[in-house]
Design brief:
Blueprint lengths: L2 H6 L32 E3 L12 E3 L21 E2 L36 E2 L12 H5 L5 H13 L4 E8 L5 E8 L3 H12 L15 E3 L13 E7 L7 E9 L2 E9 L5 H15 L1
Antiparallel strand pairs: 1-2, 2-3, 4-5, 5-6, 6-10, 7-8, 8-9, 9-10
C-alpha cells in the first residue's frame, strides 16, 4: 500500500461521514460539547509549595478519536501534564475567570515533542519568549506580515512562545501560542479576521492555496477550545502544509505541520488534539 493509500485508509470518527462538512467556527465557547471520554487519564497533580493543582491528562496511542486502533503512524508523545496554577488562581474556563486568563506560564502549555524528534532551537527564543517577527515569518507575503503584525499590536499582544521539531521522516512541526489580555480579543481575532471557515486570510509560507479541512474528525473537539483547520490544496509545491488555529481563553495557537511529498493526516490530527487538551 502506498503512503497516500495509507492516509486515505484512516477512518473518520464513529458516526461521522468522512466527507461531512465541518461545523463553522462557533462563537460561544461555553456551548462546545464535552467529548473527552476517550481521555486515558485525568487526575489531580500534587501542588508544590503554594501552587494549586491544574490536572494531568494522559493519552494512549489508541485514544485519539477518528484514528485507527492499529498502528497508523501516530507519534509517541509523553504523558501530558498541565502546569500548576498560582495559589488561589482559577483555571481559564472557571466561572470566576471572566477574562479566560491562563494563569499558568504559557511556556509550560506548549505540547512537548514526541519520541525521536529533533528540537528546532530557532523557535526557543530568549528565555522561551519568541520575537513577533519570528512568528510572522510563517506567513508568505510581506504585506500580510505587516498587516497582521500591526493587528496583533493593536489588540494588545502580550507574549509569544513556541516549540518546533523535525521527525525522522522529515515532518516539521511548529506550534505558536500567542497570549492576549482577554478571551474576547482572541475570539475577535480568530474569526472572521484571521481564520475564516473557507480559507485562511493570510497564506502560510510554502502552503500555496489552503482550504478548510473537512476530514478532521468532529469527535476530536476539546471542550472550550475553538478550532479552525486547513489543508493545502493539490498540487502541492515542494512540501504539503497543514495548519490549524486554536482559540482557548486568552490564548491563540497556531499549529503547523509540513513534509516533502505530503504531510500525513494522522500525526497532524494527533498534535492538534493534544495541544488543544493542554489549553482546555
Amino acid at each position: 500500500m502506498t503512503e497516500q493509500q495509507q492516509e486515505t485508509a484512516v477512518p473518520a470518527a464513529p458516526g461521522v461521514l468522512p466527507d461531512a462538512p465541518a461545523d463553522p467556527v462557533r462563537k460561544d465557547r461555553r456551548v462546545l460539547r464535552a467529548v473527552l471520554r476517550w481521555t486515558a487519564a485525568v487526575a489531580v497533580c500534587a501542588a508544590v509549595g503554594a501552587a494549586t493543582a491544574y490536572g494531568i491528562t494522559g493519552m494512549e496511542r489508541t485514544d485519539v478519536p477518528g484514528l485507527a486502533t492499529e498502528p497508523d503512524g501516530r507519534w509517541e508523545y509523553p504523558v501530558l501534564t498541565r502546569p500548576p496554577l498560582p495559589s488561589g488562581s482559577p483555571g481559564p474556563f472557571a466561572e470566576a475567570n471572566t477574562a479566560g486568563t491562563h494563569h499558568a506560564d504559557p511556556r509550560a502549555l506548549l505540547l512537548p515533542a514526541p519520541e525521536g524528534a529533533t528540537d528546532d532551537k530557532a523557535l526557543r527564543g530568549a528565555d522561551g519568549w519568541l520575537a513577533e517577527e519570528d512568528f510572522l515569518a510563517e506567513y508568505a507575503a510581506k504585506d500580510d506580515r505587516e498587516e497582521l503584525g500591526q493587528h496583533l499590536t493593536d489588540h494588545g499582544l502580550r507574549h509569544i512562545t513556541a516549540r518546533g521539531w523535525t521527525m525522522p521522516d522529515g515532518t516539521r512541526t511548529r506550534i505558536y501560542l500567542l497570549q492576549f489580555d482577554t478571551a474576547a480579543v482572541v475570539d475577535k481575532l480568530l474569526a472572521p479576521y484571521l481564520a475564516p471557515y473557507s480559507a485562511p486570510k493570510f497564506p502560510l509560507r510554502g502552503a500555496g492555496t489552503s482550504a478548510s479541512d473537512k476530514t478532521f474528525p468532529d469527535d476530536a473537539v476539546v471542550d472550550d477550545v475553538e478550532r479552525v483547520v486547513y489543508d493545502e490544496a493539490r498540487p502541492y509545491g515542494g512540501e504539503q502544509v497543514r495548519h490549524a488555529y486554536l482559540a482557548a481563553g486568552d490564548t491563540l495557537a497556531l499549529v503547523v505541520q509540513s513534509r516533502e511529498g505530503g504531510a500525513r493526516a494522522v500525526p497532524f490530527r494527533q498534535t492538534v488534539t493534544l495541544q488543544s487538551q493542554l489549553l482546555g
